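Interim report, section 4.2 (structural modelling).
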Amino acid sequence: MSAVFSLKNLKTKSRYDFESLLARNGIDLPPLGVETLQVNITKLCNQACRHCHVDASPSRTEKMSPEGIAKCLEILERHPRITKLDITGGAPELHPEFDRFVERAVALGKHVIVRHNLTVQLDGHPQTQEPKEYLPQFFAKNRVEVVSSLPYYQQFFTDSQRGAGVFAKSIEAMRRLNGEGYGVEGSGLVLNLVYNPVGPYLPAPQASLEADYKRELKAKFGLVFNGLFTITNMPINRFKLHLDKSGQYGAYMEKLLAAFNPAAAAGVMCRNLISVGYDGRVYDCDFNQMLEMDAVDRAGKALSIFDFDFDRVLARPIQFDDHCLGCTAGAGSSCGGATA
Amino acid sequence: MSSYYESEDLKKFGSIGEHGKKLADDFFKYYGNVTGADGALTRREKALIALAVSHSEKCPYCIDAYTTACLEAGANPEQMMEAVHVAAVMKAGITLVHSVQMQNHLGKLVL
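Predicted structure of the assembly:
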């Protein structure tokens, strides 16, 4: 045991060490609650976006077992303080249990959010070719909140990040969602869009960009939506590989460090949610999940949905690393957009 | 021979205060006040103006900095290219409008 501690102590702290930065600013970030259970049910996706922190693609096979889905539903049922289920992937609609998972969670009275990439409606399942055109009606019937990535209101940035032809398909998919009432005032059906910078720079202010999106999408395509979430690219996985290969990693980290905002730090999403991997392991966020940084309890034991204890989860020390600078730069970043 | 312009040197901009701190501080404060926030012009409009000036003044540091600044202010490549065209036509117009001087002088010289 002492050898483990001495090895840990020997680990050199990087210039971008997040915990040191918090300490220098007198900031402590304990969990505040667990309002949202964010579950990544599959890494399979019909797309392979250049910035994807999940490294999702049509060739991935990881998916949550039926037992895992059942366990998540049991946790939701047992814990009324967890009011939201946020289903993500990959393209979560490609999971064979997706529909049942949504319907059961809705029946439990939970607010269900689906991270829907839009194009899966038209592309269908990349391995079985099973069509997914029913999704707008399915979402509307279950009144789920739809959150969809659209890196810009023009083709150039969108196709650069998400692949050739994605913009045109996304516009058609939005049209179908609007047709079901999504984003339409008074319908109560919420369609939020997500903006990611298409490179190593920070997002523009969320409110001004949202106004641009609304004006341009309405004028050029007759489309409507509710809100825009600006999300900073995390320097991990596929995006980090791009930064390394293009020699921009250091400059990007310096940018994030220089833009550190204590107000954004206070609002980081890991204080109010937990992230669940396809194998049932629990993480502080989806980014930690992709880095396999398990959430641990006070005794250092990794947390899992299969021995879930709400109080143990709430008392955990959140795990931080260099990439957390992405959530605290500028106006902040979370799965719900800017935080400051 | 090394290049006169190294992108890494942009980080050293702050060092202009080494031999004149007061004036450098005054400049950076003024710079921040003008470019750092929305005023009568938005930050995006100011970034696009700065991008155009960066081209007309042929400053590689400024072109890099304001390409990023434009993106971080929500501008798109069409707007950025159009800003450069504004700089270009100003340069062309400034050249061409001087031909009036040429014509005036021509009028004096020619019998």
